[in-house]
């Protein structure tokens, strides 16, 4: 146990050197003030600009490419002959 903790073991909170109390500050602010620009900023987070739509439009064609790649991998696994794929096993 550190010596500073032993000295404060009586349950008193750590003294604040700056005198700033965050709880008093938050209590004084109360509710947020009215934002006159809130209506003008709302378009950024709705419709075409929602978080989902922004993510979806960041990678156009990713879904189609994933399906095409998976289809090719399945085709290669089941239908293509792998007769020339073993170069290291007794070929030389």
UniProtKB/TrEMBL annotation:
It holds the Pfam family NDUF_B12. Its main location: mitochondrion. It is found in: Mitochondrion inner membrane. The chain crosses the membrane at residues 58-78. One of its GO terms (cellular component) is mitochondrial inner membrane. The keyword ATP-binding does not apply. It comes from the Eukaryota. Belongs to the complex I NDUFB3 subunit family. This is NADH dehydrogenase [ubiquinone] 1 beta subcomplex subunit 3.
């Amino acid at each position: 146990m550190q010596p500073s903790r032993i000295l404060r073991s009586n349950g008193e909170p750590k003294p604040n050197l700056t005198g700033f109390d965050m709880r008093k500050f938050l209590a004084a602010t109360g509710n947020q003030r009215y934002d006159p620009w809130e209506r003008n900023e709302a378009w950024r987070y709705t419709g075409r600009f929602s978080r989902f739509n922004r993510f979806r439009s960041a990678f156009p064609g990713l879904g189609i490419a994933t399906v095409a790649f998976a289809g090719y991998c399945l085709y290669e696994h089941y239908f293509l002959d792998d007769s020339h794929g073993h170069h290291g096993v007794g070929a030389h």
